[in-house]
Amino acid sequence: MSDIETELRPIVLHGRGVVGGVAEGETLVTRETISGWGGVNAMTGTVIESRHELKGTSFAGKVLVFPGAKGSSGWSGVFHTARLAGTAPLAMVFTTMTTKVALGCVVMRVPSVVDLDRDPFTLIESGDRVRVDGDAGTVTIWKRER
Amino acid sequence: MVALTEAERAMADGAEGAAVAKAMDLLIRYADALGAERFVETNNVAGVPGSSTPWLKNYYRADGGDYRAIFSRFDLDSDEVVDVPRMNAFSCHLQGGMDPSLWRDQGMTEAQHDNFVYDEGQVAAHGIQVLKTCTPYLAGNVPVMGEHCAWMESSAVVFCNSVIGGRTNCEGRESTSAAMLAKRIPDWGFHRDEYRRGQNRVRVEVPVDDIFDWGMLGYFTGDAVQDTIPVLDGAIGAPSLIRHKHFGAAAASSGGVEMYHMVGITPEAPTIEAAFGGAAHGEVFVYDKAARARTYEQLNAVGSNTDVDFVMLGCPHYSVEQIAEAARLIEGRRVSANSELWIFTSRAVKATADASGYTRILSAAGAKLMTDTCSSISQAVPPGTRVAALDSAKQVHYLPAIMGIEGWYGTTADCIDAACTGKWNGRLVA
Questions:
Q1: Do residues B133 and B372 make contact, with C-beta atoms less than 8 angstroms apart?
Q2: Which of A35, A72, A112, A126 is catalytic?
Q3: Do B359 and B369 meet the contact criterion of CB atoms below 8 Å apart?
Q4: At what angle do helices B18-34 and B173-182 cross, to 10 degrees?
Q5: Residues B399-411: tens digit of each pLDDT
Q6: How many domains does chain A have?
Q7: CB pair distance less than 8 Å for B33 and A75
Q8: Residue B366, Cβ neighbours under 10 Å: how many?
Q9: Closest C-alpha to B246, from B145, B142, B322
Q10: Contact A100 B33 (CB under 8 A)
């Protein structure tokens, strides 16, 4: 098999579905946890936390790949508001389960997957196309041509 | 899939009405997201049920835009609007958006105040206690050891788990509102023994024996252990409620600590072995003189201008002991013409402060004793504020970032002095 064929073959990660449904789109990846209240502007879907590597970037309509939630218990409320404002992520892939992120995924009603069999941060880069299947608990990755 | 008891199945099927069925539907989705296998019963719930901004009311205007619509569609995440009865669990409303009488000083409009009055009337009418504080344990809701609770507010959650030995995760608005109706919360995380064991160790090698130092140790601890459970031992001075309150709030802000153990001090840590519950001791972090100095610098990194125009105390909400101390420090002095001093507490504690004469002393000195909220929650500071002085590591973590101002961290005495002189003179005393 040539290198090119390897590049084009999608990578499939297996994990546990948190919220069901299927969504496909472009990823936004961060290795830093995200604060809801005080860390995100729900009206624009933009990360506002000082010193966050995504500061000024919006996750609206993207598949958000991140370690999980931190900060205030207002996390779900902020992401819930983002859903109403039309700025929620398309799907969520994360690595550390907490009550904040679980409730946030539920009220955002977006396909979400956790507990993957391989490290998503080494396999997914911002801009890659992925399909998140919350029913099967899988993440399918097509690497962006670079 | 979460297993349901007969009673829970009946609630989900509507035996106790549509609102309880919607609450169970949300809680089942939440339990399945967590991977919880069952629910625990709770009769102690603290959240922000149904309180909403005009934006949210307007969003649901087609559904009536009223409390019923907000509680159904947002709090219960329901696709249809249902009648919302009185809550079934002992339910408490945490902090709110403005002071009930000094709201004009906080820059609120008549319309915002009307919205606040409407929501509060609805909260009371639904059988929810109007505590309006981030410190429910100082205002009429003190859990006991082993009690299953469903609380929001990170500083209250860490206090409940660590200091009292109550059991709660850091819940959100929707899960607490649903728990108020269904009296259930997923049996996951801090409700379970195996989750409450220490994971990393903090060895305290410099004496930590006042509230200012407990706050700094908390900020250091959160930064070191992030969201794991620390076990602290060493030179920790006599514990008190206010020392724990500031330690926990700081650790929850800098790292996300939801429970800590202090050997020989907190109830689930009689010995270091008990605190770790047989598990490995993880990483060891040392809090020594150098770490203390670094933490002080970190907390004062957003301060450069020594002209202080605002001093805010009461994060988490002041206890009556702290209000008495502030009154003692300011009696006979006056807040500078170039500065303002706002002190935040709960309505219950303010009633005691009124009766004890502290409100009068503070007022005579030009300070304002406010309730319900704080400058971060309501995004309210005096007009033109550029530099704030704070005695809370949590507030200095949040307020300067939220309001785009400078901030200083110091002792309560440093802060009162700054309010009276308009100048910051705080420094770290060895």
A1: yes
A2: A72
A3: yes
A4: 130
A5: 998 899 999 999 9
A6: 1
A7: no
A8: 17
A9: B322
A10: no
Q: How many CB atoms lie within 10 A of CB B121?
A: 12
Beta carbons of A48 and A39 less than 8 angstroms apart: yes
CATH at A60: 3.50.30.10
Interval B152-170: pLDDT, tens = 999 999 999 999 999 999 9
Structure confidence by residue, pLDDT tens digits, B331-361: 999 999 999 999 999 999 999 999 999 999 9
**pLDDT value at residue A4:** 52
Q: Please compute Rg for chain B using Cα positions.
A: 22
Q: Say if residues B45 and B179 touch (Cβ distance below 8 Å).
A: yes
Nearest to A102 among B30, B227, B253 (CB): B30
pTM of the model: 0.96
CATH superfamily, domain at B302-421? Aconitase, domain 3 (3.30.499.10)
Q: List the strands of the sheet with B150-151, edge to edge.
A: B91-93, B45-47, B150-151
Give the start-to-end residue ranges of the domains of chain B. 6-193, 197-298, 302-421
Positions in chain B short of pLDDT 70:
none
Element (H, E) at B361: helix B358-364
Q: Tell which of B174, B176, B405 to mutate to test the A interface (max A CBs under 10 Å).
A: B174
Q: Which domain holds residue A64?
A: 3-142
Answer yes or no: are the C-beta atoms of A63 and A28 closer than 8 Å. yes
| Tokens coding B75 | 């709090």
Q: Are B260 and B164 in contact (CB under 8 A)?
A: no
**Kind plus residue range of the DSSP H or E element containing B41:** strand B39-41
Handedness of CA A64, A70, A73, A74 (dihedral sign): negative
Q: What is the CA radius of gyration of chain A?
A: 15
